[in-house]
Amino acid sequence: MLHFSRLKALGIILTTLVVCAFAIPNFFPEKTVQGWPQWAQRHIVLGLDLRGGVSILLEVDTNEVRKDKVNSLREDVLRVARENRLGGAPTIRGNTVEFRVRQGVDPALALQKMRELSQPMGGVLSTTGQRNLEVVDAGNGLIRLTPTEPAIVERVRQAVDQSIQVLERRLNFSGTVEPSIQRQGIDRILVQVPGLSDPQQILEILNKTAKLEFRLLDMSIPPEQVDPNNVPPDSELLSGADADKAQKYLVEKRVLVSGADLTDAQPGFDSRTSEPIVSFRFNNNGARRFAQVTTENVGKPFAIVLDNEVLSAPVIREPILQGSGQISGSFTVESATKLAVLLRAGALPAKLTVIEQRVVGAGLGQDSIEKGTKASYLGAALVVIFMFVTYGLFGLFANIAVLFNVAMIFGILSLLNATLTLPGIAGVVLTVGIAVDSNVLIYERIREEVRAGRTPIMAIDAGFARALATIMDSNITTFIAAAVLFYIGTGPVRGFAVTLGIGIVTTVFTAFTLTRLIVAMWVRWWRPKTVPI
Amino acid sequence: MRLLRIVPDDTKFDFMRFRRISFPVSALLSILAITLYFVHGLNFGIDFVGGTLMEVQNKAGPADLAKMRSTLGGLGVGEVQLQQFGGPSDVLIRLAQQPGGENAQQAAVEKVRAALGDTVEYRRLEVVGPRVSTEFLTSGTLGLMLAIIAILIYLWFRFEWQFALGAMIANVHDLVLTIGFMSVTQIDFDLTSIAALLTILGYSLNDTIVIYDRIREMLRRYKRLSMADLLNISVNATLSRSIITHVTVTLALLALLTFGGQAIHSFTATMMFGVVLVGTYTSVFIAAPILIYLGVGTSRDTGQKDEG
C-alpha cells in the first residue's frame, strides 16, 4: 500500500497541482483575469445571492400561443375554402376549427384539400410520423381541424427561442451590463442581471410585447355609441395608451402593416411642434403596403396600435410613399426612447409572465460573502488546530491533504465555470467534513493496528488498506445521493449537488493518493521506529 | 509531544443495553416530531408557499415597526408581516400569496415600494409565484425521497438487505427529528433548508456506513459472538473516530453559526441539531442496534470457533 513508483508519485503531485492551479484566477480581480490567455480565464461565477443582482424567471403563456395558432389556422382554412369554393366561414370552437362543407360539394374532396394543410412534424425528413394538425371528418359535411399537442409544444419552444433573441436585443439596446438570458425547460426564460438592484427598469423592458400595428379606424359608428357587447364583427374597441386610457377607439381588426416590417425606429423631435416623436422606416414589403394603403385612404384616420392600445390616430393627409413615417403621441423624451428601443428589438411572439423574481442588493451579497468567508476561515483554523492537537505530525499531514482537497474543489468548479451559491458553499462544508473524516478513519485504523502490536510500516499499511474500503463505501453512497439530487433538483439544490459531487471525487482522490503519498514519503525518509499517532 | 486522547484506547461501553431506552425514546420523539409537523406545521418560506419577501434597511436609523405596519396594512395587499431582522434598522416584510395569479404579485410589490418610497434601502426582494413554489416543493420532496431510495438500493447490493433497511430507518429518523426541530423553532423552511436536510442526510449516512462497515468486518471475524456483543465491539472500535469527526464538524459549524451572518444562520442551526445532536446519537443507538431486530447474523455458522 505504501509503495509508490517515482512516476506514480510525480503523476499524483502533478495532477493535484494542475487541478489546484485552475483555482488561481479566482484570487485576482476580474479585470486582471481578462488580460490572461483564454484557457486561464475560467473561474467560479458567484451566484446572485452572493454578489447581488436581479434574477427574473419568465414564462411564455402557452394558452395564448395555442389561441394564436388556432386563429391562424382559421385563416388558413378560410383561404383554402375560398380557393376551392368549398363552403362558408369556418368557426372556432375551443382549440378546434370547424368547417361545414357547402351543399353540393363532395365532402371527400374538401377533406382532402383540408388535409393538405397538415404537415409532418420536423419537416420533410421527419421520421416520427407525427403531424402538426389533426383533420377529422365528423360526418354530415362537418370537418374539424385541431393543432396537435406536439405542434403546440414546438410552437412554444419557438416562441421561447424568439423571445430570448428579442430580450437580448432589448437589454443590449438599453445599455444594461452583461445580462444573462437562458432557456429553462420548455416554456421558461431566466433573465439574470448581476449588480443591478432595481428590478423595475428590467421589468418595464421585459413586460412589453411591443406588437405594433397600423390599422384603419372603423368610422361606421362613433366610438362612444358602440355597445361593448355588440361590436361590429370585423372591428374591436380599443383604449388609448397611457394618459389617454379613457379614450375609446373603434378599430378594424385587419392589420394593414405590422411592426414586423419595420427596419428601424429612432426617437426624435417633430420639426414643427418640437414634441418628442418616434420615427420609423419600413422594409420594401412594408413600404409598398403602406404606400398603397395611404394612397387609398387619404383623408381617413388610421390607428397606430401598440400592444392593443392606440398610441395615436392621425388622419392620412397625403400618400406616404417613401416608406418612413413618424408616431406622435403624448411622448416624453424618455418614453419615446423606450418605444424606439422596443420597436427596433422587435415584438415578443407571446406574452411573458413573471413567475419568480429575486433581487439581492449588492450590499447584502457583500455582507454574506464577508461574514461567510470570515466564519469559514475561523472554522478551518479551529479544525486545523484540533487535528494537529489530536494527531500531531499526522494531523499536519491531514491538514495539508484537506487544504489541497478544498483547492482542488475550487479548481474543478473554476474549470467548469460553475456558479457558486450559498447552498453550494454548504456542499463544500459537507465535503470538508467528509474529507477530515476520511483522514480520521485512516489514522484511527493505524492506531488500532499499532495497538495490536504491528510494526510501524505494517500498521500504517494495514490502516490504509482497511480505512480505504470504508471511505469508498461511504463516499459512493453519498455520491449517489448527490447524483440523484443533480438530476431531480432545481436551482439551489442543484448547486449543492454539484459541489458535493465534486467534493466527493476530490476526497476519494486525496485519500487514496495524496494522503498516502505524504505518509509514504515520510516513512521512506524517516524510517520510523514508532508511529507518533 | 503528548497527543490529545478524547476517548481511551480500549473502551468497552455496553451500548446495546441502551436500546431498551433508545428505541422507545426515538419512537416517541419521532411521533412527537410528526405530530408537531401536522399540528404546529413548518414555517414555510415563500419558496414553497409563494408570496413576497422584502428585506429593507431603514435609511434614517432604527425602523419604526408600528408605523410601517400601519402604512403597509392599509394597502389592501392582505396580511403584511413585519419582523426585525439582524440590526435595529433591518426589517423583513412578508406578503402572502396574492389572489389573482402572478401579475397580482407584481402589483402588490409595486404598492409596497410606492408606500415606502425612498425611506428605505432594498436589500433583498423575492417574489415567488404560485406555480413555481408548488414545483419547488414537489421537486424538493421528490429529490429527497429518490435519493434515499437510490441509497437503499446501493446498500442492498453492497451489504445485506438488513443493513440497507437499517440505514434507511436511521436516515429517516434523523430527517424526521430535524423537521420536528424546525417545527418547534419555527425556523424558515425554504430551499436552503432542503440543502441543510440533505447535508444532514449525507453526514448521517457517512456515519452509519462507517459503523456498518466495521460490523460487517466483525461478522466475518467473530463467528460465535452474540450479535449484541459483536455490535458493542464494533461501536466501541469506531467510537474514537466518531467523536473526533464530530468534534471537528461541531467546531466548523460553531464558527459558521457565530460569525456566519444572517444568511446562513438557520442553515447552520439546523445542521447543528441534525448532525451534531441527532446524527451521532442515531448511528450509535439506532443504526447499530436495529440490526439485531432486523436479524443480521442469525444465519451465521455458530459451530465454528472464533479466531479473535
Q: Could you please describe the fold and organization of this structure?
A:
- The complex is a heterodimer of chains A (533) and B (308).
- Chain A contains 14 helices and 19 strands.
- Chain A has helices at 6-21, 30-34, 48-51, 62-83, 107-115, 149-173, 199-207, 284-296, 333-345, 362-391, 393-415, 422-451, 456-488, 491-526; strands at residues 45-46, 53-60, 91-93, 96-100, 133-137, 142-147, 180-184, 188-194, 212-216, 235-240, 248-252, 257-258, 262-269, 276-282, 302-306, 309-312, 324-327, 352-360, 419-420.
- The longest helix of chain A has 36 residues, at 491-526.
- Chain B has helices at residues 19-39, 46-49, 65-73, 101-116, 130-158, 161-185, 191-221, 227-259, 265-287, 290-294, and strands at 43-44, 51-58, 80-85, 87-95, 120-128, 188-189.
- In chain B, strand 3 and strand 4 form a beta hairpin.
- Classes of the chains: A alpha+beta (533), B alpha+beta (308).
- Chains A and B meet through helix 7, strand 18, helix 10, helix 12 and helix 13 of A and helix 4, strand 5, helix 5, helix 7 and helix 8 of B.
What's the helix and strand layout?
The complex is a heterodimer of chains A (533) and B (308).
Chain A: H1 6-21, H2 30-34, E1 45-46, H3 48-51, E2 53-60, H4 62-83, E3 91-93, E4 96-100, H5 107-115, E5 133-137, E6 142-147, H6 149-173, E7 180-184, E8 188-194, H7 199-207, E9 212-216, E10 235-240, E11 248-252, E12 257-258, E13 262-269, E14 276-282, H8 284-296, E15 302-306, E16 309-312, E17 324-327, H9 333-345, E18 352-360, H10 362-391, H11 393-415, E19 419-420, H12 422-451, H13 456-488, H14 491-526
Parallel strand pairs in A: 1-19, 10-16
Antiparallel strand pairs in A: 2-8, 2-18, 3-4, 4-6, 5-6, 7-8, 9-12, 9-15, 10-11, 13-14, 14-17, 15-16
Chain B: H1 19-39, E1 43-44, H2 46-49, E2 51-58, H3 65-73, E3 80-85, E4 87-95, H4 101-116, E5 120-128, H5 130-158, H6 161-185, E6 188-189, H7 191-221, H8 227-259, H9 265-287, H10 290-294
Parallel strand pairs in B: 1-6
Antiparallel strand pairs in B: 2-4, 2-5, 3-4
